[in-house]
Backbone:
């Protein structure tokens, strides 16, 4: 897809989805996608390789649920992969300071190249596994986060409890993109674990992509304030 077609498509779709988006922001997304497709020839970054699919299933899937999330403050994108949802969120909401946490060295190298070519500030690519929170913490540019996001990563309640309780500031949000085949009741099994970790399940939110009828879900938890 040529640049002008990419811009026309993403601007039309973000407008239809009521996401404020400028041509400058669309150009940044185009640069991100172009680099991803270039790197994808030698490094497995995505199975979706057509631009229309990337716009819908990566960029819009990152941005549509943002209406339920903080749009400023410190954020950490856990298992960022090629940068979703972290980079589109940073592009859409410049007041977010974003850490892109990824365990694979080649993907971190890709993220650093992308960030070097985008006119964005206060966004970092960091190699590490979120399960190894104690080794990650000294490397983080922020000590606590208003928002933690996780997309296309399998959820494990014990990791959620550790990461949310250690990474999040009071009232901070942990958001998991659950995908279209989510079990909407699984989190009830771990309610006691969440209470011990000081996090509260806020609910699951349903949304749809413009060209896909099957609903998708965002799961949201909130870190409780400490007792006075």
Residues:
């Amino acid at each position: 897809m040529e640049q002008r077609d990419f811009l026309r498509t993403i601007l039309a779709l973000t407008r239809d989805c009521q996401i404020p988006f400028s041509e400058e922001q669309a150009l940044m997304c185009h640069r991100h996608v172009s680099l991803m497709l270039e790197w994808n020839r030698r490094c497995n970054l995505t199975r979706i390789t057509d631009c229309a699919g990337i716009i819908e299933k990566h960029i819009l899937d990152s941005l549509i649920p943002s209406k339920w999330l903080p749009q400023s403050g410190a954020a950490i994108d856990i298992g960022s992969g090629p940068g979703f949802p972290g980079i589109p969120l940073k592009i859409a909401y410049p007041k977010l300071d974003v850490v892109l946490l990824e365990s694979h060295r080649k993907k971190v190298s890709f993220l650093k190249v992308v960030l070097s070519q985008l006119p964005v500030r206060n966004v970092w690519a960091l190699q590490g596994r979120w399960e190894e929170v104690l080794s990650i913490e000294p490397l983080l540019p922020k000590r606590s986060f208003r928002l933690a996001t996780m997309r296309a990563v399998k959820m494990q309640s014990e990791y959620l409890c550790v990461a949310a309780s250690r990474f999040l500031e009071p009232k901070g949000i942990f958001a998991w993109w659950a995908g279209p085949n989510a079990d909407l009741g699984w989190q009830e099994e771990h309610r006691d674990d969440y209470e011990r970790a000081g996090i509260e399940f806020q609910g699951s939110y349903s949304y749809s992509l413009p060209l896909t009828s099957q609903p998708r879900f965002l799961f949201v938890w909130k870190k409780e304030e400490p007792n006075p």
Q: What stands out?
A: Helices lie at 3-16, 23-40, 51-63, 86-92, 105-117, 133-136, 157-167, 191-197. The chain has one domain: 61-223. The chain has eight helices and seven strands. The domain at 61-223 is CATH 3.40.50.150 (Rossmann fold).
